[in-house]
Automatic annotation (TrEMBL):
GO terms for biological process: thiamine biosynthetic process; thiamine diphosphate biosynthetic process. Belongs to the Thz kinase family. It holds the Pfam family HK. Its cofactor is Mg(2+). The keyword Cell cycle does not apply. The keyword ATP-binding applies. The lineage of its organism: Bacteria, Bacillati, Bacillota, Bacilli, Lactobacillales. It is an enzyme of class 2 (transferase). SUPFAM superfamilies: Ribokinase-like. This is Hydroxyethylthiazole kinase. Keywords: ATP-binding, Kinase, Magnesium, Metal-binding, Nucleotide-binding, Thiamine biosynthesis, Transferase. Catalyzes the phosphorylation of the hydroxyl group of 4-methyl-5-beta-hydroxyethylthiazole (THZ). HAMAP family: Thz_kinase. It comes from Lactococcus cremoris subsp. cremoris TIFN6. One of its GO terms (molecular function) is magnesium ion binding.
């Protein structure tokens, strides 16, 4: 059975520490592909929520010093309860966010990290141009992804014109670029949520990361054609395309 088929059969529960810009899009994409989204901002309920979840996705897009304990406890519990832990390191190049991720990484192990080329370069201790949440370089170079995977012990997904998935020893590539992904804020967050959903039902996280990235990218290409390269309705078309793909396997 395919990973997507397993999602339809088991309907995994995905716990998200989302940023406050895109929680609805994250919840929608998880639901549309057949899983159940769960959000929290309360540390007191984390243990019970992580216990019933099948994967934990953390996004540092709007993290603060006051919410750091929430993130640390969620990550710690995910490790303790052997739940796949997925990190979206939004703008980790910014000093405060870098300090947050360094502190988290000293305490917990992330299983999958999904970011753009500048964010992944940070994990590889390499320089890469960025502006806020956006990478300014589009060169395809698997060195940073491989180094990041070796340094972190995580499966790395480096998104760009061609997505690179690395486990530190080998790479797989997804060539499904659309300019509308970059224009629509939150598409990266949505992809990370899809990755978490695929990871929730798979023992092979490298393959799950690749399959999720390919699935999301192919849907984006279809949606781009449907909206004729206009961004306003892209996310709705993307969600519809993802949903239709799940219906085809039932």
């Amino acid at each position: 059975m395919s990973i997507l088929g397993k999602i339809q059969r088991t309907q995994p529960l995905i716990l998200n520490l989302a940023n406050f810009v895109t929680p609805q899009r994250v919840a929608d994409v998880i639901s549309f592909i057949g899983a159940s989204p769960l959000m929290t901002s309360e540390i007191a309920e984390l243990e019970s929520l992580v216990e019933i979840s099948d994967a934990v996705v953390v996004n540092i897009g709007t993290i603060s010093e006051s919410t750091y304990p929430l993130f640390l406890e969620a990550c710690r519990l995910a490790n303790q309860k052997a739940k796949p832990l997925i990190l979206d390191p939004v703008a980790v190049n910014v000093p405060f966010r870098a300090s947050i991720v360094k502190r988290l990484s000293q305490e917990v192990k992330f299983n999958i990290i999904r970011g753009n080329s500048a964010e992944i370069a940070w994990f590889a201790d390499k320089k890469s141009l960025n502006k806020g949440i956006d990478a300014l370089e589009s060169n395809i170079d698997n060195e940073h992804a491989r180094l990041a995977a070796k340094k972190t012990g995580a499966v790395i997904i480096e998104t760009g014109k061609v997505d690179i998935i690395s486990n530190g020893h080998e790479e797989m590539y997804v060539d499904t670029d659309s300019p509308l992904f970059k224009i629509n804020v939150g598409c990266g967050d949505m992809l990370t949520a899809v990755v978490g959903t695929f990871a929730a039902v798979s023992d092979d996280l490298f393959t799950a990361a690749y399959e999720a990235t390919k699935f999301f990218g192919e849907a984006g290409m279809i949606a781009t054609k449907q909206v004729q390269n206009l961004p306003g309705n892209f996310v709705n078309s993307l969600l519809d395309t993802l949903y239709q793909a799940t219906q085809e396997i039932k």
